[in-house]
Write a structure and sequence with these properties.
Layout (H helix, E strand, L loop, with lengths): L4 E4 L2 H7 L3 H16 L7 E2 L6 E6 L2 E8 L4 E9 H4 L4
Parallel strand pairs: 1-5
Antiparallel strand pairs: 2-3, 3-4, 4-5
């Protein structure tokens, strides 16, 4: 499988800085794995969206999109599960 580049929406930096340190390490490890496998086991497609997926990392959710033509993963949000779905 091809190596994907990972990019972030500007708001993701704020999301990441708000994470507890232990969670931030787990989230970063998951992001690095997305570069190798953009649709890992456990990733679910969000209902009502053609290109967004969610990855569960404990009580936190990583919302991201995959562009297979450009071999790119775009991270949209990293938030607690009770907050992340309010926008969708």
């Amino acid at each position: 499988m091809a190596h994907y580049s990972v990019t972030f929406k500007p708001s993701v930096e704020k999301d990441f800085r708000a994470l507890p340190k232990a969670v931030a390490h787990r989230v970063w490890a998951a992001i690095e794995k997305l570069a190798e496998e953009p649709l890992p086991r456990g990733a679910l497609k969000l209902t009502g969206s053609e290109s967004l997926y969610r990855l569960r990392i404990g009580d936190y959710r990583l919302i991201y999109g995959v562009d297979n033509e450009k071999s790119q993963v775009l991270i949209h949000h990293i938030r607690h599960r009770r907050e992340v779905y309010r926008q969708f």
